[in-house]
Amino acid sequence: MKPTITYFQSSASEASHWKTLGIYRAARQLNWSVLRFDIRSPTQIRDDLRYWKPDAVIVDAVMLGSRMVFNQVFRHVPTVFIDPDLRFADGRISCVVQDTDATATAAADELTKTEFASFAFASWPGRPFWSEARGKSFVQRMKERGHDVAVLRLSERPYSRRSVVHSLEGWLTKLPKPVGILAATDQMSMHVVEAADRIGLSIPGDVAVIGVADEAFFCENTTPTLSSISLGFDTAGSQAIDIARRLIENPRRKPIVEQFRETQIIVRSTTRRTSRHDRSVTTALDLIRARATEGLSASEVFSCFTCSRRQAEQRFRAIAGRSVLEEIHAVQVERAKRLIENPNQKLTAIHQLCGHSTPQFFQRLFKQTVGLTMSEYRRKIGLT
Q: In this predicted model, what pLDDT tens digit does every residue of 140-167 receive, in sequence order?
């Protein structure tokens, strides 16, 4: 009988979705079964464990902070926590945790590419452990580069959007401009943009901001679009399955603690700040990000400029690092990769969802960019 894993999910965020995808992908490679549950009361969790009798448990613990959950509920079954608050762990749990130093380094590298008068970190309200850890690491990385960081710590509970934005307004007013800000989350990054707009500060001229997690809901639907640090949450899910495998093979082994370090800067409008800031290029980049997968043409992008097409192309390449058409294709291929990662998505329909009417052209474009066909890419990530 193949092993069964119960996976307790603590939120419905995009990050949680990617963790789940990584868990299912890795489990499928081992021919394991996964039963997913929302986290409920300790009593209901105990009832689930007694009924299903799993070989191991994985818990998305980013929203949890209870010693009782860590020390009692899962005591009698091999358990791996993803993103737990290690203050409650006491070195007695197996877990996969974020490498906040890697995240902070990525943010520091991005924000120090151009000159700022100051730098800052905006924590999430209530100061959860993951927000505090990101802030602490960012302060340290910037200190190593010779910069101080102003930290905004919000204690409001429950969360109130109006209260957060109001606090940000006063904070932003006092910071020397221009300022480069790391926000604890993409949602907080969105609030920074809202507050800056309310007090008449320009983004990214006066305030450049980058968030964490690259949640498309916030990043792509905020104006201007939000730069963010993608954390590779699917990798965390895969690592959790591998740790569970080792615990099943040797239940008496010491707790295993690993970090997931995959970070990638997704540059959008809130950090596209250069010494030669070009609003037309920023507008063009936002248009491409928003409509590339709708069949956007290069001619439509050039309408953002008042100069000749040749001059527009030169200005665009100087800032974006590639041509308008190359940027359109890059966004389309990135969208295709996300679609392929959905095991229920038919490959034959992906070209249309990425803005192409001809499948053969898009298949060639994808292979030239990624180095693999779409079916080969799906096999590589373990979905077939």
A: 999 999 999 999 998 877 789 999 999 9
Looking at the chain, list the stretches that DSSP marks H as alpha helix, in order from N- to C-terminal side.
14-30, 42-52, 67-68, 100-111, 129-144, 161-174, 186-198, 216-219, 233-249, 279-291, 298-302, 309-320, 324-340, 350-353, 359-370, 374-380
CB 227 within 8 A of CB 209: yes
**Helix (H/G/I), strand (E/B), else coil: 12:** coil
Query: Cα 206 from chain centroid?
Result: 25
pLDDT per position as a tens digit, 208-235: 999 999 998 898 888 888 999 999 898 8
Best CA proximity match to 164, nearest among 130, 210, 198, 136: 198
> Which among 65, 13, 22 is positioned nearest to 212, based on CA atoms?
13
DSSP state of 72: I
Angle of helix 324-340 versus helix 279-291 axis, rounded to 10: 30
The pTM of the full predicted model, rounded to 2 decimals, is 0.78
Residue type, 241: I
Q: What is the rounded distance in angstroms from the CA atom of residue 258 to the CA atom of residue 94?
A: 8
Contact criterion met (CB below 8 Å) for 288 and 275: no
**Residue 62 near residue 82 (C-beta atoms within 8 A):** yes
Nearest-angstrom CA–CA distance, 11 and 61 = 9
- CA–CA dist 49, 60 (Å, integer): 16
DSSP 371: S
Query: Which domains are seen in the chain, by residue range?
Result: 4-99+232-261 (3.40.50.2300), 100-231+266-271 (3.40.50.2300), 279-380 (1.10.10.60)
What secondary structure does DSSP assign to 199-239, as a single string?
A: TT--TTTTEEEEEES--HHHHTTSSSPPEEEE--HHHHHHH
What's the distance, Cα to Cα, between the start and end of the chain in Å?
Answer: 22
Q: Within a 10 A sphere around the Cβ of 359, how many other Cβ atoms?
A: 15
Say yes or no to pLDDT of 11 above 90.
no
